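Subject: Sanity check before I submit

Could someone independently write out the structure tokens for this chain? I want to compare against mine line by line before I put it in a report. The sequence has 107 residues.
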Amino acid sequence: MQLFPCIQALAGAATSEVLTAWSGLGYNRRALALHASARAIESDFGGRIPNDEAALRSLPGIGIYTSRAILAFAFNRPVVFLETNIRTVLLKHFYPEGQKVSDALLE
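---
Independent answer below. Compare away.
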């Protein structure tokens, strides 16, 4: 947060600077995707994080879970998203037989 306090700061940073800041956090591809997303937000969305699921999912590294988590936590939107622990609890409670159940059915 000190190095990149806003989208514009991250978007304007050199890739090497982003990777140096990310060092030790693992999965450098996440840093690269975050950096690319910041640049896309700057160029395609006027520097504002989109509040639309399709627009969020157009950003590098953003899938269903992350787009919906952003909508829920950043924009206070009532959306359903499943992460591993929530999925496990739902499966054990509603499908104790261990049958294969899709995320769509759980949602």
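---
OP: Matches mine. For the report I'm noting this point. The CA atoms of residues 40 and 46 lie 9 Å apart.
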